[in-house]
Amino acid sequence: MQINVQSFASRSQPVFETKDAERAHALQRLAATCRIFGRRGYSEGLLGHVTVRDPELSDHFWVNPVGVPMHQVRVSHLVQVNQQGQVVHGSGMVNPVGLLLHTAVHQARPEVMAMCHAHALHASTWSAFERLLDPITQDACIFFEQQALILEPRVVRDPAAAAHFAAGFGDKRVAIHAGHGIFTTGQTVDEAAWWFVLMNRCCEAQLMAQAYGEPSLWAPDDARWLASVLGSPHFGWLSFQTLWDEIILSDADLVQ
């Protein structure tokens, strides 16, 4: 499949005639995100989860099950859970702690349709510094003033701790959870997935830069402008389409 550059630039988010069609589309993108994360080495054992709010039942969420390697996830593997994390559709097991965190953020943020977390090496390593990313590159500027730093609770065992986590997330697009890793959100699965891929790369860049010295920072006004343009929900969605075009070409079975 060849991509026409002009037609790509004009791509827009789809409009659906039915909730079933919207759901089918979202689940395909969720499965694709898992494949992409697995291929990039973000998945370790049973860790890593992506949630998307059901388009019809706003307090229900779809998530990849525990035990299916992320690079093998198909639409048919995905399970639906309620606000309490109980499986209501599908037969797979789910990560209870991961769902505590995700459902708490979804509940606190009605505009968040999707959320991603995985134990990507560079993001997890950067989180140990308990610092926000600095605007040292154009890519890093996308997250300028859009990051939350969550120091407590460090471990989430119950809904109260999860609510504390969600409060620490606030209204930011992404969060760094100390000693754990990063969480990204979006109005679509596509957007949330792209922020995760990009943020992990920015963590890698800052770790490399600081290993050699002290990198310079972009001016706040310039960083803020880049964040407003390249950090828009539509730009995040559009950026993901390059990853979708690649994964669906090589892994067409993900829609099964």
TrEMBL record:
Record's keyword terms, sorted: Lyase
The enzyme's E.C. designation: 4.1.-.-
Protein name: Decarboxylase NovR
Top-level taxon of the source organism: Bacteria
Organism annotation: Pararobbsia alpina
Gene3D superfamilies named in the record: Class II aldolase/adducin N-terminal domain (3.40.225.10)
Keyword Hydrolase: no
Coiled coil: none
Alphabetical list of NCBIfam families matching this protein: PRK06208.1
Family: Belongs to the aldolase class II family.
Domain Class II aldolase/adducin N-terminal: residue ranges: 28-207
